[in-house]
Write a structure and sequence with these properties.
Blueprint (H helix, E strand, L loop, with lengths): L19 E2 L22 E2 L5 H24 L30 H12 L11 E2 L8 H13 L10 H17 L12 E6 L2 H20 L7 E6 L4 H9 L7 E4 L11 H13 L3 E8 L11 H11 L2 E5 L24 E3 L2 H4 L7 E6 L22 H11 L1 H24 L3 E3 L7 E6 L6 H17 L4 E7 L2 E7 L4 H4 L12 H16 L1
Parallel strand pairs: 3-13, 5-6, 5-7, 7-8, 8-9
Antiparallel strand pairs: 1-2, 4-10, 9-10, 11-12, 12-14, 13-14
The chain binds pyridoxal-5'-phosphate.
Pyridoxal-5'-phosphate (PLP) binds next to helix 5.
Cofactor: pyridoxal 5'-phosphate
Keywords: Decarboxylase, Lyase, Pyridoxal phosphate
Pfam family, one: Pyridoxal_deC
């Protein structure tokens, strides 16, 4: 796909006239001394990238962020994990229009502390166990800094050869850690590209697969194209199909249930394909998921891949969350069968410490030019130098540490699961494969409606404490609680990074107490 013509960096993006800073004050002095507002006469021409100012204010900002991470651990009472503000809270706290004159960094950071922080849900809190994590690390943070500092736009090879070449190399490294088949390696018949998000990754492959089938059978067949996935598949798949012109009625979300732990039954797929073929539809795409958003269910790639091959269907594997665990040999089995896939993606910003956003996608490529021009592998033209942070994460930690960290998160989830299992008030509702535990209060006298209501109330009670944040999902009509481990501080808090660590008891104890209180009242 090609969405641009190489002239996409935009026009002049800086109109500095009328703005400015005053020497030593305003934004030029982040430590807040002499913080008076700059008046027109004193304004000097703005220097948006003054190296000394960057040095001074960069240090202040790093200190601010480092203090945040320290305080998240040391003063959790000041940081309710789930923000407790009401909608619209910020409107009354900020002016109606942007300032004419510069303000100081100190003033701004003061506002961050007093006005922005209350509206932050602390995804980096050690007591964050809600949606899949947004994992950060010092290495990822430094990579983001370097990326922001260099700020290149590597849409073609020549716009920054290092940006393209490092991305190819780092994605080969990661593909090897995941033991992906040769056809996803740049040295084989494929290659990797870092998309911003999982949503972008699935959109790109749906469009590529659609174009492939339209080329094969003719462009008029668009209304006959059908796609398949389980009913547990992330909503981005449906969105991608709709953007790609696939009619809503032609998106088959096949039913799953507890008998397969919410994984897609191959027989359901084959039956749906046969049915569609008999009616004149053209099956062209299946999205299999390893680690669904709702319950970390796993679709069986081996049989699904065989079916895809038999019918000439593009199979994509969405392993946004669980793909990260597959760098550990003991979890690699969950992507066995990826050998038959046409594309595979995972979100390194979920569980591989590559700060948002970083979604590596690998595809089989039929024709390759001498150089890769990544603008043709994604939706937008402009692109960030994201491989820097992944490279830094891989180099500064090493794969053995990354594997151990993931294992520790899984252990933590297992210990939480054990606790839930031992308490007769609760049940674990799906088989846990990774670091997500799906559980609920059990029904009393078989009353499922009442049970759903009690679990809803329990969730609200837990999250309103601000001490811990968990989320929920629905499975087979049941209201289920999700406890997902993945925030990096969940271990750092105890200073045992990269070593076997005991359970983060404070977090678990909080849930236990709240659960007990709720059950007993
Ligand atoms: C299985 C799965 N696929 C796709 C996505 C979407 O990823 P992103 O938020 O990066 O677009 C998610 C997000 O949680 C997910 O869990």
């Amino acid at each position: 796909m090609e969405f641009g013509n190489g002239n996409g960096t935009g026009t002049d993006n800086c109109n500095c006239n009328g703005n400015g800073i005053r020497n030593g004050n305003g934004i030029g002095n982040g430590n807040g001394n002499g913080n008076e507002k700059v008046k027109g006469a004193n304004v000097i021409k703005m220097k948006p990238m003054d190296s000394e100012l960057l040095r001074e204010q960069g240090h202040i900002m790093v200190d601010f962020i480092a203090d945040y991470y320290r305080d998240l651990q040391d003063s959790p009472q000041d940081f309710p994990v789930l923000s407790q503000v009401q909608p619209g809270y910020l409107r009354d706290m900020l002016p109606n229009s942007a300032p004419d004159q510069p303000e100081s960094l100190n003033e701004l950071l003061d506002d961050v502390t007093k006005k922005i922080m209350p509206g932050i849900t602390h995804w980096q809190s050690p007591s964050y166990f809600a949606y899949y994590a947004s994992s950060t690390s010092v290495a990822g943070f430094l990579g983001e800094m370097l990326n922001a500092g260099l700020s290149v736009v590597g849409f073609t090879w020549q716009t920054s050869p290092a940006a393209t070449e490092l991305e190819i190399i780092v994605l080969d490294w990661l593909a090897k850690l995941l033991q992906l088949p040769d056809h996803f390696l740049s040295t084989g018949h494929g290659g990797g590209v870092i998309q911003g998000t999982g949503c972008e990754a699935v959109l790109v492959v749906v469009l590529a697969a659609r174009d492939r089938i339209l080329k094969q059978v003719g462009k008029t067949v668009l209304p006959q194209l059908v796609v398949y996935a389980s009913d547990q598949t992330h909503s981005s798949f449906r969105k991608a199909c709709l953007i790609g012109g696939i009619h809503e009625d032609n998106i088959r979300l096949l039913r799953t249930d507890s008998s397969t732990n919410y994984g897609l039954l191959p027989e359901s797929l084959e039956e749906a394909i046969s049915h569609d073929l008999a009616k004149g539809f053209i099956p062209f795409f299946i999205c299999a998921t390893v680690g669904t958003t709702s319950s970390a269910a796993v679709d069986p790639l081996v049989p699904l891949g065989k079916i895809a091959k038999k019918y000439g269907i593009w199979m994509h594997v969405d392993a946004a969350y669980a793909g990260n665990a597959c760098i550990c040999p003991e979890y690699r089995k969950f992507i066995d069968g990826v050998e038959n896939a046409d594309s595979f993606n995972m979100n390194a910003h979920k569980w591989l410490f590559a700060n948002q956003t970083c979604s590596p996608l690998w595809v089989k490529v039929s024709e390759k030019d001498a150089v890769v021009n990544y603008k043709d592998w994604q939706i937008s033209l402009s692109r960030r130098f994201r491989s820097l942070k992944l490279w830094m994460v891989l180099r500064l930690y090493g794969s053995e540490n990354l594997r151990n960290f993931i294992r520790e998160h899984v252990n933590l989830a297992k210990q939480f699961e054990d606790y839930v299992t031992q308490d007769p008030h609760f049940e674990v509702v799906t088989t846990r494969y990774f670091s997500l535990v799906c559980f609920r209060l059990v029904p009393v006298d078989g009353d499922e409606d009442k049970c759903n209501q009690r679990n809803r109330e329990l969730l609200a009670a837990i999250n309103s404490t601000g001490k811990i944040f968990i989320s929920h999902t629905a499975l087979s009509g049941q209201f289920i609680l999700r406890f997902a481990v993945g925030a990096p501080l969940t271990e750092e808090k105890h200073g045992r990074l990269y070593k076997n660590m005991p359970l983060n008891l404070p977090a678990t104890a909080i849930v236990k107490n709240i659960l007990k209180e709720t059950v007993e009242n």
